[in-house]
Amino acid sequence: MPGSSTSGAAGTRKVAVVGIALSDCGRVDETTPYALHAQAARRALADSGLGREVVDGFASAGLGTLAPAEVAEYLGLRPTWVDSTSVGGSTWEVMAAHAADAIAAGHANAVLLVYGSTARADIKAGRRTSNLSFGARGPLQFEVPYGHTLISKYAMAARRHMHEYGTTLEQLASVAVQARANAAHNPDAMFRDPITVDDVLSGPVIADPFTKLHCCIRSDGGAAVLLAAEDYVRDCRTAPVWVLGTGEHVSHTTMSEWPDFTVSPAAVSGRLAFERAGVRPDEVDVAEIYDAFTYMTLVTLEDLGFCAKGEGGSFVEKGRLTLTGDLPVNTDGGGLSAQHPGMRGLFLLVEAVRQLRGDADERQVRRPGGRLPQLAVASGTGGWFCSSGTVVLGRG
């Protein structure tokens, strides 16, 4: 197996993903986010075949005043290693990197990553409202008074890419069309009916140039991933998926400090992950990429090295991202069609592992000759391209 199991810290043990699961997802009105955490955690442990007593590490973010202490208490866990890193959608790839390092170094044996959110149900029930910003203190005080929303920041970045490289609205729309085509094969996806480029372009404008279908959906749901030292693999009920290399990077918080709107932090986290894994982007079989907006998919593909800078538009418009394409991307339908309950990065890891294990059912990717995928990458993005975490995974 190429590469190492960690992001570069000293360690001797290989690290595998041995359990994955989603909670109930989509429209889940009669539950709490704590319950979704518990449901996903139980299912991931059951998937692994290991008992909860082996879990000595726990990572969670986004819920409770003292995350992850509150969630661990709810789950009845008493971990001796914890992580509450919160960097938006990239949180879970960054946490997976930290967990892999801790396990490799012997600071933990089995680390459970868990997320759950009732974002959609809370809006419908009036328990929360949409927000214009994440706060008005610190550096953000210089942007918030002008109504500079998260969506508008992504929209500005997309417009800059269009200006610099001639990327078209039709090319961005094709990302949404291909995500929906993949979702058609996922019975758990919220939206499965086919859409066309014209459907995307003719929708209501949310933030120029994004129409509604350029933007992720809002759903409920949770996910869990269990990582463990190689010593535990023989006791698991599923084939291991090895953590080969990881990378993380924080870029900026204020737009004025972002050197180039056409380069995301995945340009750094991806390079580090591939170098540490000892593999090249052109060896990857499937890619799970955070897709809160269509532009996010396009620019991340460039920055991970799947195509040259500025060529993302021509790369995505040729149908390469579908299950039978050259590089299947967001094989479950992604945040644009499957589910997006908030910080979706953990769902990327779950889907990547499913594809490598060969248990993705109707949406299972097969490479030339009918072989199962051997290498996958999961790359999460946080904030408005503020942070990135990338994990390269290999089939056992």
Automatic annotation (TrEMBL):
Signal peptide: none annotated. It comes from the Bacteria. Residues 247-395 form the Thiolase C-terminal domain. GO terms for molecular function: acyltransferase activity, transferring groups other than amino-acyl groups. Gene3D superfamilies: 3.40.47.10. Keywords: Transferase. InterPro entries: Thiolase, Thiolase-like, Thiolase_C_2. CDD domains: SCP-x_thiolase. PANTHER family: ACETYL-COA C-ACETYLTRANSFERASE, NON-SPECIFIC LIPID-TRANSFER PROTEIN-LIKE 2. This is Acetyl-CoA acetyltransferase. It comes from Streptomyces himalayensis subsp. himalayensis.
